[in-house]
């Protein structure tokens, strides 16, 4: 059981680092997003390949939105890959929808509360995914 605790600790540290960098620089660095995306994709491919659809779905949605309307960066796309896989692994389609829709709701609320036209989206993605995963694990 200690292995799971270690994985959770590493994941929390990674998420906090992403949150802090995105809030400060409004950028999610490749150094933090690429290894997570590759690791999540590899893990899904060798354990349950259907989970890749969660990651590809979120990343693809953001890629489409970014190309069509702007406002979505490459870091959000790469983060969507790893978080989409995580949400799908935690609770399937329902958890995936909670994470994806929740990220948008949290970003809109943050913008309204701070009265800023633009806020970092990565923290909202992380928060909504943590909520979705927590819902399915009873945390």
From TrEMBL:
Residues 10-107 form the Prepilin type IV endopeptidase peptidase domain. Keywords: Hydrolase, Membrane, Transmembrane, Transmembrane helix. GO terms for molecular function: aspartic-type endopeptidase activity. The chain crosses the membrane at residues 6-22, 79-106, 118-137. It holds the Pfam family Peptidase_A24. InterPro entries: Prepilin_IV_endopep_pep (IPR000045). The keyword Transmembrane helix applies. Its EC number is 3.4.23.43. This is Prepilin peptidase. The lineage of its organism: Bacteria, Bacillati, Actinomycetota, Actinomycetes, Mycobacteriales.
């Amino acid at each position: 059981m200690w292995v799971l605790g270690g994985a959770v600790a590493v994941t929390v540290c990674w998420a906090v680092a992403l949150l802090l960098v995105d809030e400060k620089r409004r950028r999610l660095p490749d150094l933090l997003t690429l290894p997570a995306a590759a690791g999540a994709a590899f893990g899904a491919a060798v354990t349950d390949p259907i989970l890749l659809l969660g990651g590809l779905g979120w990343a693809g949605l953001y890629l489409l939105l970014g190309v069509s309307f702007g406002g979505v960066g490459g870091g959000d796309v790469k983060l969507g890959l790893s978080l989409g896989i995580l949400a799908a692994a935690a609770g399937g389609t329902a958890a995936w929808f909670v994470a994806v829709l929740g990220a948008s709701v949290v970003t809109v609320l943050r913008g309204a509360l701070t009265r800023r036209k633009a806020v970092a989206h990565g923290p909202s993605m992380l928060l909504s995914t943590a909520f979705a995963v927590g819902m399915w694990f009873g945390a």
